[in-house]
Structures are given as C-alpha cells and as structure tokens.
Design a protein that fits this description.
By secondary structure, the chain is mainly α. The protein has one domain: ABC transporter involved in vitamin B12 uptake, BtuC (Orthogonal Bundle), CATH 1.10.3470. The chain is about 70% helix and about 5% strand. Strands 1-2 form a two-stranded antiparallel sheet. The longest helix is centred in the first third of the chain and has 31 residues. The chain starts with a helix and ends in an 11-residue tail after the last helix.
Amino acid sequence: MELIAINIIDGLVTGLLLFMLSSGLTLIFSMMGVLNFAHASFYMLGAYFAYQISMYIGFWPGLVIAPLAVGIGGALVERYGLRRVHQYGHVPELIFTFGLALLIEEVVQFFWGKNQMAYEEPEILQFAAFAIGGNSVPAYKVFMIFVSVGIFMGLLYVLTKTRVGMVIQAALSYPRTVEALGHNVPLVFMGVFGVGTALAGVAGVIAGPVLGTFPGMAVLLGSIVFVTIVIGGLGSLWGALIASLLIGWLTTFAASYNVEFESILLFFGLEKPEIMSESALRDIWTMTLPQIGPILPYILMILILVFRPYGLFGKRDV
C-alpha cells in the first residue's frame, strides 16, 4: 500500500507538470491551428531564465519574472514570425517552429553551455512534508502540486466565467464574427500564444530543480506533450488535465513493478503462441513493464486515434 501511495503522488506530480505544458499548447493548437514544435523549448527557456535570476535575487522572483519573459518572447514570436508565415499554410508553420526549436537550443548552449545547471529548489522547501511507510515526500513536490492545481483553476475560471474567456472561445470557432463585433482577433491570438508559452515557462521554472536544467530537457518532454493533447482532445482544458494525469500515473506505475510482458498477457487470459518461441519476436515475452513503460502513452494515443479520433474530451478530429 505504501508503494501505491507513493506512486500516486509521484504520478500526480508528473501529470500536473505535463498539464502545465499541454494546457498552453492545446489552446494554441486548437485556436490557431499551429502545431508549435518549439513549445517545449519555451519550457526550457523558463528553467534557464529562472536559474539565472535565482543566482542574483532568488528563486521566488524568478518564479514570476521568468514566465513573464518567456510569455513576452512567445507573443513577439507570434506577432513577427508566425503571423507572417501563417498565410502560406501549415507546412511553413511547422518548418518555422521546428527551426525555432533548434535555434533556441543552440542559443541556450551558447550562453549556458552543455552541462547541467546547478538550479535547486528554494531552501525554505528543502524538507520532507510527510512520510509514507518510511518514504518521505519532499515539500517541493507538494508545492508543485499546489501551483499546478492553482493554474488549472485560474485557467478554468478565465475561460468559463469571464468576458475575456468568452471572446477567446468565440474566436476559436467564429473568428470573422468576433472580428465583425469589434474585437481585435489578431491581438487575441497573440495573447493566447503568449499565455501558452508563459505556462510552458512556469513548468520549466518549477520542474528545473527536480528534472534537471540542461539543453536536452526540451527533447525529453517535447513529444509526450503532443501525445497528451491528442489523447485529451483539441481545445479541451479538462481533456489536457485528464490525459496528463493518465500518462503520469501510467508511466509511474509501470516503472515501479518489474513484471514480465508474458505475465501480463496470462493475467488477461492470453497465452504465448508456440510459433513465437522460435521466432525473432521471442524476446518480446521476456520484456518487463519498466522496459515498455515509456511507450505506453504512445500505445494509448494509437488506441484513442482508432476508437475516438477527437480525443477523450475533444469536439473535432485530430
């Protein structure tokens, strides 16, 4: 029971961190139709900006300043980059954001080098919040949970209870009508893109001390973010949250139980075919759950695309 409880907490932290990344991207993707390959690079920038700021004025100012800087940078990218490329179609957009991701990685390596930065959590949170069966849960992980939940509640309130949220959701489906009513739709798009990248920056600020701050951190989470929004559904904040939690718990529990693939099939009443014993695929049956854990989210994505192409909470096909 203690291991299950620890896995639930660790999976919750992983899932909520993934939500902060995917929530911004799902808004950008659904509203503007832009598959932003550079989204995880803004996450990396948030971590590096916060590290640099923490060296001079501490962690807490960095938690505010770094996401703002990343959000402003994202808004400028949309205004002077994506907006010009958008008129030529989706392929130039993909090439632009892919090139931007490579450029950001090179800039990071130029200024900070290729080594991992000594970016740590604040001293005030360097203690164990509580223990479960001898396993201590750091206070910083509890802090990450509260920040993520707070962001979700704030986004949900803005999108469903405020005039700004109504304009954003209307611009998503009826941009010409919203523009005819006197609203500046391009400004709305720029704002959404800036907020989306700022959310990625927040994720980088609070994840940097735990997952490490290094040039390859964007690559580690880049692909899984797109998997999350496909599973959750385009434009759905609840979908992004549920999908993030599913992936967080799926990967965490898979890494904790050393069970062979053959045992899993036997549990479901399936037996290994005799022909498999002599074929090149025989080693598949000896693979363990921690070995196949990293690909489980992708298998889930394939199943979602087959049986529910618009995702768990989406309203249109991917």
